[in-house]
Design goal:
Layout lengths: L6 H11 L1 H5 L19 H4 L1 E2 L6 E9 L7 H8 L3 H7 L13 E11 L2 E9 L6 H8 L6 H7 L11 E6 L6 H5 L4 E6 L6 H7 L4 H7 L14 E6 L68 E3 L11 H6 L1 H8 L4 E2 L2 H7 L8 E3 L2 E6 L2 E9 L3 H9 L8 E7 L2 E6 L8 H4 L11 H20 L5 E2 L8 E3 L5 E3 L6 E2 L14 E3 L5 H6 L5 H16 L3 H4 L7 H9 L4 H8 L10 H14 L10 H21 L6
Amino acid sequence: MQLFPFTPIIMFTLLIHNFSLILGQQPYIGLGTVACPRRGNKNSIRGYTCNGSNHTCQAYLTFRSQPIYNSVSTISTLLGSDPSELAKINSISLNDTFETNKLVLVPVNCSCAGEYYQTNTSYVFQNSETYFLIANNTFEGLTTCQALENQNRNPANIYPGRKLLVPLRCACPTKNQTDKGIKYLLSYLVNWGDSVSLISQKFGVNYMTTLEANSLTLTENTIYPFTTLLVPLHDKPSSSQIASSTRHTPPPSPPSSENRSNKTWVYVVVGVLVGAIALTSVLCAVIFFTRYRKNKNKDDSVVVSKRFEATEKKPQGKVNEKLSEIISGIAQSFKVYNFEELQRATDDFSPSCWIKGSVYRGVINGDLAAIKRIEGDVSKEIEILNKINHSNIIRLSGVSFHEGRWYLVYEYAANGDLSEWIYFNNVDGKFLSWTQRLQIALDVATGLDYLHSFTSPPHIHKDIKSSNILLDGDFRGKVANLSLSRCLEGGDDQFPATRHIVGTRGYMAPEYLENGLVSTKLDVYAFGVLMLEMVTGKEVEAILTEGETNLSLVLSAIIGEESGQERLKEFVDPSLTENCPLELAIFVIEMIDNCIMRDPAGRPSVHEIVQSLSRILNSSLSWERSMNVPRN
């Protein structure tokens, strides 16, 4: 009798405890996979909650075959699946391989591990990888970087050869679902062009049932590539249901005309060094502005902070003393021109050949070239360019010295600089499509990745901005103007701090402006600002509201609110109109937001940016073709 008064309380407690089991919903992860480690506290990002009637069950994943994971053995090993079962459900033999991008069904045993459902596999950490790359590229979104960090001890201590526990996203049906005859849940990898309706139709599932399983509604049902959607199944999935699901990866944009014979460039591969260009060839030039924009001053907005002591200039005599040494070294790598050759090439530096500033267009041996006149010491820039051979960094092909001035001869960029093309109010009406902007951004990031990771010692650019990105005849981006570049002088990946603050307003990172701290994350911050300008069609000064200096606050209205996609329509460059996939644009905004974080430690590496942009570009090209968007 004494227990009776407590019975209603106990029943109420049990009801609350089992409430999630009755509802049978798992929140869709949304854009959580983009931000790592930022905004990664939602439970759904770490895994599906253990709310099913069983703590273990048979579940299914999907995976898109990619080299090197394109066979029964490699995919089953990567995902911890039984190879015989994987071969059987996909109706192939154990020794068969899958065509690239083939959708593969993967049977797994799913079970509760603490708070989350998961199926575990392992992965050996490779050189230059991060949790973000492992989650979103190797495992294609079947796990998240937050889940990896959550389930591996000392997550910051990552090194080549370390064995990682990889929790893959799976779930078991709730009581509510089993009562309706649902026996299995399939974690489906969303690709571009997918929708809840199409995925449901593919597997013969009721549309509303799929929405319900993912806590989506008729009005809130947007899904994003590289995420998982739970598909509730009454029967085991079959290979016939995914037979038409192969999505061929779009071919990369055509390489620049000078490299058409080189077939090795594939934009989705990070850090690939594209075809060696002979240093003695003469293909030169830099086209900046052919006319002034109203706010031309931005291009020349180099500032020196008064809070810091300026570095003492080297006397001109010091420069001249090094002249013979510099020319001697140059002659081994670059052509040394007589000044008269450059006079003939530019019609004696005629105004008709003037491009901008001290840059002139010239013709040398029938080829266009850009000739830049410089006063002062150019040894550092020449030394850097002498070490570099990359298609996404402008190439120096020759030099000349005359009456105390240097003349540098660069490869020709037929479409000028990026600042002529991305601003909505440009006077020439020039326009870049969404995919062209992404391709150029990927080119810039790839060039920076080369500077940061593949030069010895590593270098940072320190002046990434729209006017320092040149476009060749095929609108492929090339990083230019390495005059402010710095190299790693010590160990531990540390660049020395400086008291000489030089750069362009709006592009300089807070830690550099305030404390003179120098690292590769300066380029990441500037790249984020550049991408923001490319997406909005506005210069950074126009994006910031009066008195505001924090760009992240500008983005918070888009990525931090439920109505973010509507805000995004107003935020994107109006010239893109309907020719921009907003579902992918929000991924770019998230990436930009991570790049411009105040804390440099929270910014991604350029290597991570390259990986993310490759995937977004790949999906955007598919979208462009599916929508028959006209190409420029």
